[in-house]
Amino acid sequence: MTVPPSTHADAAPEGDWTGQAESAACNALLRCWVRETGLPLPDAGPVTIDLPASGTRLEAGVVYRSHAGFHRFEAVRFPSGQPVGAATLAALLVTESVAARGGGPAAVTELVARVSDSTQRIASFLASRAATAGDPGRTPFLEGEQALVLGHPLHPAPKSRLGLSESEACRISPELRGRFPLHWFAAERSVVAAEGDAHGWLAPFAPETPEGYVPVPAHPWQARELMSRPGVAGLFAGGALRDLGPYGPRWHPTASLRTVYSPGERVMLKLSLGLPITNSKRENLRVELRRGAEIDRLLDAGLDAELARHHPTFGIVRDPAWLAVDPPDGAGRPESGLEVVVRSNPFGPADRVWCVAGLLAERPDLGRAEITRVIDALAARTGTGTQDVAEEWCARYFDAVIAPVLWLYRHYGLGLEAHQQNTLVALDDDGWPCGGWYRDNQGYYISQWRAGELERLLAGAGTAGDNRCADEVIDERLGYYVGINNLLGLVGAFGSLVGCRERPLLELLRDRLRSFGDLPVATALADAASLRCKANLLTRVDGLDELVGPLETQSVYCDIPNAFAG
Question: How confident is the model at residue 542 (pLDDT cuts 50, 70, 90)?
């Protein structure tokens, strides 16, 4: 059963952005709960959620049941008929989870705060986007990066940014089309670490600095927050760090918030940002800086040429350089908060390259997702039904975007954390997928058993980036990020937002996965009865930061039925 969002019985009317935000937040929470508890859903009609820890029962109408997990629900209500808001729903669900896991009330308080913050921000995003048009000079790449107005459809608080004021949000939020100049510091060379020609990359837009100092850019929010850090304050007091203030062109925040883009520059910059966003504070770690630079060296050593030979329309967005200010001895951690990744910008102003998450994002402010517009236009142009167009589109997407990721893992033991926000798809003039990109220096995994394939290109590959790990760990991560987040998320969007039948799409993708039958992760995705899936709600209940600690314990995983296998 497929029902467009606007026809939901309890959907907020158009223009009621607070109601739309509440609905989106409750839907995301319920999707998480259904996925992580295995709660069975009817194809349509009411579902009951029993919560014995609080002695409560909730009811919600199922409007669309998705094989891929992108369900749609009417308003959540108590048995009395009283509606339940997102904060109340979060409190009840988290109380139940905490009771089952032996936690305390602090977890409930923390997550309810995040859900409330996320919901309020979504309401402001929707109101702003509905009231304003985009700039005429915006590029397709930037449109895709700033299209995630609701955020991850299976995260309990996708837009939570606790600690960010309203005025700051207007400047730095991609959803509000923020823009800002970088904040610059002058750092003595003795306290600066760097790799690659970072200074050369930055020179075209950097301010002048005194003799013996180098310019270091920072996110404006981070620049203000840094002043309260004792280690950084010591650098200022000793003269090793000087505040130069805002300077240069205005930059646009992308989907990750802390990576910034300017259409006229050769590079993007991935800046440290100490805000808690989804599951982590987004500050660059030294090991991630080294990891990105090491992958750049691997690509130069022959991996890029091999990838181009086998998959000429797929590329890896490079991180060729970085620089960072060293904290003083005794600061307690190797990062100061002034760590900058220099990322290449391979996209011209006319390149039709979309962040996959943005392309598939639900857009109440526009009335339909961008992918719906693309598929409708293709159907009209070709005179073909929407379902047939969707199947052809998904087949081309797999071949252009997913097959190269699996090829790299099959032949080189290099796993890419290719979830939808880290994956870019190039569309041709008609709207068909014709190429793809991967980006993110955090998400490279090198098989410790097959590292020799990469060591033939670069001695010690995976050592500098500290990212050698067991295949079992890589398989679990790729199974989730590539299989569940990316591919099942694709199918869910086609079903829930475009109105296509999901089962034929799942079967098509399963057949594509079987073409990598010698790769255990692909075989498991195609045919295993269940899959290991990141549990975003439980990860937040446990208060885990996904960027801290061993790979094996950074997130909570659960088993879910395998939709590909039917």
Answer: confident
